[in-house]
Specification:
Elements: E1 8-9, E2 13-15, E3 39-43, H1 63-70, H2 72-75, H3 77-83, E4 89-96, E5 102-104, H4 108-113, E6 122-129, E7 135-139, H5 145-154, E8 161-164, E9 171-174, E10 180-182, E11 186-193, E12 199-202, H6 218-222, E13 246-250, E14 255-261, E15 265-268, E16 276-282, E17 284-289, E18 292-297, E19 301-304, E20 310-315, E21 319-325, H7 340-344
Antiparallel strand pairs: 1-19, 2-3, 3-4, 4-11, 5-12, 6-9, 6-11, 7-8, 7-10, 13-14, 14-21, 15-20, 16-19, 16-21, 17-18, 17-20
Length: 380
């Protein structure tokens, strides 16, 4: 009888929503008979929507059931001690054919006051962006509650909010309390705390399938909203290089790194006191660990157990993986310090960043320009 742990792959959960699109069909997902799939839940521990294991002898068991059996060996001892059998992160692909509602999520403190275990801090990695697609993240300037209420009542809330036109590869970190919205034409990978709490602020007067205006959470949102103005751009500046690992976000809830690669890569995990999730956001890849190889394509996740000493990554042509862990350093003290946003947003550890100067004389973010290096340059 088999009992040894191995990297876990999961069955996708499909969610039909009023604003959802059909781009996921192009990545090999079949969600018939749903008319669209606005959300693909790739890895979930949310009650009633727990991911089901798709490979190996644990197939057909839920993620929560596997954690109950293997505890810290699967997720890490500190993670298990804090979260028990609930996996602390939720991984989604969001395909917006129409604008999503303008919304906000509570932080842990407010969520717990209202009977929920966790708030919701999240991040987006933009996988596709149609020409002209926009998103909202934060306020343009410091705003008072009175200004906000007046703009909301007049139907001019968007005049107060910061919006940007993202490109594929852009990263947006959305701390709890930040007003935000995805616009039509965007498909993103979303990594967030395990919480399904959203306060809908404005929804363009849309009606549901029964002809009723969709519910808003105007008063519930008031205590959650951070009214401070956004400083600079909303997107995270980073510098990715082929076959190297680059940190995109680092906060108490998750650490996310990008690995664009076209050759095999081996990583040592001995010092990582956490599970590791690899989420494919471009191409076809394979994750090998603990003598098991798990293939993945765009939109799929692999959970590497915390007891794994190493992992090898392979690809069929160029591919991109998001590598997600939880940094449990200092958890025996007070891991959720109030100033963590300022400390971590766009953060990042210098030894893990690769901020190279290509010599073309311009600032770079990612992707390619004609100077021969792996980045994006508005000037090249």
């Amino acid at each position: 009888m088999q009992s040894a742990l191995y990297p876990l792959k999961f069955m996708p959960l499909f969610k039909n929503v009023i604003w959802g699109g059909n781009k996921l069909k192009g990545y090999g997902f079949n969600y018939a008979p749903l008319p669209n799939c606005g959300e693909l839940w790739a890895l979930s521990s949310v009650e009633g929507r727990e991911s089901v294991i798709a490979n190996g002898f644990l197939a057909e068991n839920t993620l929560n059931e596997a954690i109950e059996i293997y505890m810290g060996d699967l997720v890490g001892d500190k993670v298990f001690n804090r979260f028990g059998t609930e996996f602390p992160l939720l991984f989604k692909i969001i395909d917006a054919a129409k604008d999503l509602s303008i919304q906000v999520h509570p932080d842990d403190e407010l969520a717990q006051k209202r009977g929920m275990p966790y708030g919701k801090t999240e991040m987006w990695y933009v996988m596709e962006a149609d020409e002209g697609a926009r998103l909202i993240s934060g306020f343009r300037r410091d705003t008072t509650e009175e200004e906000y209420r007046a703009a909301l009542a007049a139907g001019h809330l968007e005049d107060l909010l910061h919006s940007e036109e993202p490109e594929a590869g852009d990263v947006y970190f959305i701390p709890a309390g930040r007003v935000h919205a995805l616009g039509k034409g965007l498909m993103v990978a979303e990594i967030q705390q395990t919480s399904d709490c959203t306060y809908r602020i404005y929804d363009y007067n849309r009606r549901d399938a029964d002809g009723n205006l969709r519910q808003l959470h105007t008063e519930e949102a008031m205590d959650a909203i951070d009214f401070s103005g956004l400083q600079g751009h909303a997107h995270t500046h980073y510098h990715a290089h082929m076959n190297e690992t680059t940190t995109l976000a680092d906060c108490p809830y998750f650490t996310t790194r990008l690995i664009p690669f076209d050759i095999p890569i081996r990583k040592n995990l001995e010092e990582v006191d956490s599970f590791v999730v690899y989420m494919c956001v471009d191409g076809i890849a394979a994750v090998k660990s603990m003598e098991t190889i798990v293939p993945v394509h765009t939109g799929e996740c692999v959970l590497v157990p915390a007891v794994a000493d190493s992992v090898e990554l392979f690809c069929e042509g160029p591919a991109k993986l998001l590598e997600v862990t939880i940094d449990t350093t200092g958890w025996d003290d007070d891991p959720m310090q109030e100033d963590w946003v300022a400390q971590f947003i766009g953060g990042l550890r210098e030894e893990q960043e690769h901020d190279h100067d290509c010599g073309c004389g311009h600032h770079h973010d990612h992707d390619h320009c004609d100077c021969g290096h792996d980045h994006h340059c508005d000037h090249c």
